[in-house]
Amino acid sequence: MTDDTELQYWIAFSRIPTVGRVRLGLLEGQFGTLETAWSAGASELRASGLDRNVVDAITEHRGTIDPAKEIERVKTAGVTVLTWHDADYPALLREIDDLPPILYMKGQFPQDDPAVTIVGTRRPTAYGREVAAHLAGELAEAGVAVISGLARGIDGEAHRATLKAGGRTVAVLGCGVDVTYPSEHAQLMEQMTESGAVLSEYPLGTKSEARHFPRRNRLLSGLSVATLVIEAGHGSGTLSTVKFALEQNREVLCVPGSIYSPASTLTNKLIQEGAKQILNVRDVLDKIRALPLIETQQALPGLIHESTAEESTIYDALAYEPQHVDDLSRATGLPVTSITGTLTIMELQGRVLQVGRMNYIRARESKASYRSSEEK
Q: Which of 77, 156, 159, 228, CA to CA, is 20 to 30 A from 221?
């Protein structure tokens, strides 16, 4: 971690609007440390390559910003500050061109978990809400972290479903992490810091403004291996997240919707233009498991895995003829909801195969050798 003496100057510079990634890198390269850069005179700053307007902004703000008080402020708020030099800085974010030099975070980022970003409209239909909750919950059960933006609608549904499933979820904000927006998500935001994180590149106290969200969206896509769009209409801000994902060489996945629904015009159009169509959680898991980017994170659960008691019970009840989850529930005494979540993980481990309509077999033999009970 960056030591507190130097970190206070990173925080101080982050409060100067004209000093971003490029200029901060320039200052660090020229002066060696940001502490030295903070005390540099105007002529030294200009000699480093900064133009007069930026130098004027730095010298003006230095009179109103106390670095020591800034770091005390973040500590009092229980906020962690990461610079791009820190080992805990999100690994995938290092791969994007416009990575933020500093991140403010409450909670703990799930660095070792594969992650999928879920985004969509702030005004979803009942269908959109149901799909978001269903997919986010099943991804969480499979050990996939869910990234979203804490907005109303699809974002909120994805965060809530992940927490309900016992998973880890991260919100990326277009304001400071000490600012709750929207206000009705205060409790949700608090829950997330206990099982995941809330993070932002904006300093504490920064209010939510429309101009912040396009910048925020590049982090939404940059923090994950794939962006999953669930309901987005014409003109939706979701499109900017999709564009960032494509620029960052990340996968774009879309859930189809009704051709009559304005809430699905963008998602259907993206599918038409080549985005991967998602019909169930297995489509998402199959896609992200095949991505090279997954190598930058820990492998999906179960590739090297010691069986839990529940997994062993289910595996012992399976055979090489298809069995429906209802039959497995009766045979094991376990609830269907528990069995389906465990089977998803076991399928990732390569230990079981779904052969159609919630029928499963042990995976020692080829799936092609079996037909579902509906096909017999």
A: 77
* pLDDT tens for each residue of 55-95: 999 999 998 999 999 999 999 999 999 999 999 999 999 99
Strand order in the sheet with 276-277: 80-83, 102-107, 196-200, 169-172, 145-148, 115-120, 226-230, 251-255, 276-277
Q: Which residues have C-beta within 8 Å of that of residue 349, sequence separation ≥ 6?
A: 301, 302, 303, 305
Residues sharing a CB contact under 8 Å with residue 140, sequence separation 6 or more, in sequence order: 146, 161, 162, 165, 166, 167, 168, 169
CATH 2.60.40.10 fits 309-369, yes or no: no
Strands 102-107 and 145-148: unpaired
Q: What is the pLDDT of residues 275-315, one digit of tens each?
A: 999 998 989 998 887 665 444 344 444 333 456 888 889 98
Residue type, 61: H
- Please say whether the beta carbons of 310 and 334 come within 8 A: yes
Residue 319, token pair as written in the block? 């055979």
Q: Kindly report the CATH number that applies to the domain delimited by 107-296.
A: 3.40.50.450
On whether the CB atoms of residues 18 and 45 are closer than 8 A, the answer is no
DSSP code, position 178: T
Task: Give SS3 for 103.
Answer: strand
Which sequence spans correspond to the domains of the chain?
1-76, 107-296, 309-369
pTM for the model: 0.76
Q: Counting Cβ atoms within 10 Å, is residue 354 exposed (0-12), middle (13-18) or buried (19+)?
A: buried
Strands 169-172 and 80-83: unpaired
